[in-house]
Design brief:
Helix 7 packs parallel to helix 8. Helix content is about 25%, strand content about 25%. Strands 1, 2, 14, 15, 16, 19 and 20 form a seven-stranded antiparallel sheet that branches. The longest helix is centred in the first third of the chain and has 26 residues. It is of the alpha+beta class. The protein is globular, with a radius of gyration of 24 Å. The protein has three domains: about 40 residues, no CATH class; about 90 residues, PDZ domain (Pdz3 Domain), CATH 2.30.42; about 250 residues, 2-enoyl-CoA Hydratase, Chain A, domain 1. InterPro entries: ClpP/crotonase-like_dom_sf, CtpA/B_N, PDZ, PDZ_sf, Peptidase_S41A, Tail-specific_protease.
Length: about 450
């Protein structure tokens, strides 16, 4: 059985493999195939002329990949071809673990800056500190590399060593640190206790997301007695999506029964429905879900299911509006095909493609002075060639995709905390399950 995957929002590289349908002699299918062969002959002729006559010898593999990419980008922004390397990277991202060092990094002043070493990982044990600048990787200068290049060099086989040359504030000279790579498990769910409220942020939907969520719930319950626990904030802002089955499992953790999501393909009979099982892992406590223009795909499935069932109140701004399903089709040593094969629908029967999830309580997050004037709005309806949704209106989808780094500046989060604590009130909170909007 093929695994369905809802992938990250945004315009992705496009590519595809060709499938020619053959029919009987004189049939419409045969005529179509004959015309297709003629078009392929034109492509072959052009490819050969470019290969043999272009002013400099072209990279033939790159030519073919770009041709495939062009074909798929004409379909929609999310269908694409992944060569073997890109397919492996995708598998690593969705698996949620890889061979590496255990540091969160960014690029600053042409060097790799360590944001934080992850606890109990090789980098932390070797003494790498937040704020360190990595100047060399195995003796190779970082200047001139992209962040992706540097990350690729730091990842690798488990139990292999790597030498980092670090510039550290207060140190008289560069520091050489040898780190032995190990399995790094990326937490898909980050949590903390906000006095009497449990806060959980789902960063993406990988193979680890549901297990991480269950672990977070258990840890929060250990720290806050049931009679003191006011409820939970589930933060889906800036969450680009991920695996469909994980979105279903996360929704199921909150729902006791009913439909979570359905997918509908090209054939009207090609409908899949995913239902919740009995049991509410949150113990029936109030839940507020935060969304914004960076909430897409799998995160919209969760928000839509909880909203339609009136299990949670959705707070924030309009979500991205990516309501399509991409199937990953392995192509052996040639990589994989990511192909849009269906649209998904919330329990009320609505497609959010090109529209997004409209929050029950709209709360804008102001931009800091340094970002004012910049367009941070993200939405599926803005993507060239996107599939037009049946619910898509003139306003389109999406909103600003910004979350302040400091919780004290996070107006949306603090609004949610005030609602849970009864400091603020709103007709949409707590939601009434008796008013659930479902497609019966």
């Amino acid at each position: 059985m093929r695994k369905l995957s809802l992938l990250a929002a945004g315009a992705l590289m496009g590519a595809s493999a060709l499938a020619i349908v053959q029919g009987g002699i004189g049939s419409p299918a045969n005529a179509a195939a004959s015309e297709t062969y003629k078009q392929l002959a034109i492509f072959g002729d052009i490819f050969e002329r470019v290969r043999s006559q272009y002013v400099t010898p072209p990279d033939e593999k790159s030519l073919v990949e770009n041709a495939i990419n062009g074909m798929l980008t004409s379909l929609d922004p999310h269908s694409s071809y992944m060569n073997a390397e890109a397919a492996q990277d995708m598998r690593v991202q969705t698996k949620g673990e890889f061979g590496g060092l255990g540091i969160e990094v960014t690029m600053e002043n042409d060097l790799v800056k360590v944001i934080t070493p992850i606890d109990d990982t090789p980098a932390a044990k070797a003494g790498v500190l937040a704020g360190d600048y990595i100047a060399k990787i195995d003796g190779e200068e970082v200047r001139g590399m992209t962040l992706n290049d540097a990350v690729d060099k730091m990842r690798g086989q488990v139990n292999t060593p790597i030498k980092l040359t670090i510039l550290r504030q207060g140190a008289d000279k560069p520091i050489d640190v040898t780190v032995v790579r190990d399995i790094i498990k990326v937490k898909a769910v980050k949590y903390r206790v906000e006095n009497d409220v449990g806060y959980m942020k789902i960063t993406s939907f990988t193979e680890k997301t549901y297990d991480d969520l269950e672990d977070a719930i258990a840890k929060i319950k250990e720290q806050i007695p049931a009679d003191k626990l006011k409820g939970y904030v589930l933060d889906l802002r800036l969450n680009p999506g991920g695996l469909l089955d994980q979105a279903v499992s996360v929704s199921d953790a909150l729902l006791d029964r009913g439909e979570i999501v359905s997918t509908r393909g090209r054939d009207p009979k090609d409908i899949s429905r995913f239902d919740a099982r009995a049991g509410d892992d949150f113990g029936g406590k109030p839940v507020i879900v935060l969304i914004n223009g960076g909430s897409a795909s799998a995160s919209e499935i969760v928000a839509g299911a909880l909203q339609d069932h009136r299990r949670a109140t959705i707070l924030g701004t309009q979500s991205f509006g990516k309501g399509s399903v991409q199937t990953i089709i392995p192509l052996g040593e040639n990589g994989a095909l990511r192909l849009t094969t269906a649209l998904y629908y919330t329990p009320s029967g609505k497609s959010i493609q090109g529209k997004g999830i409209t929050p029950d309580i709209k709360v804008e997050q102001p931009l800091p002075d340094e970002l004012k004037g910049r367009d941070l709005t993200r939405g599926e309806s803005d993507l060239k060639g996107h599939i037009k949704g049946v619910e898509e209106g003139e306003d389109g989808s999406g909103s600003a995709a910004y979350v302040p780094p400091e919780p004290k500046d996070d107006i949306q989060l603090n609004y949610a905390l005030d609602l849970l604590r009864g400091i603020k009130t709103d007709p949409s909170f707590p939601p009434n399950p008796q008013k659930a909007v479902l497609n019966q």
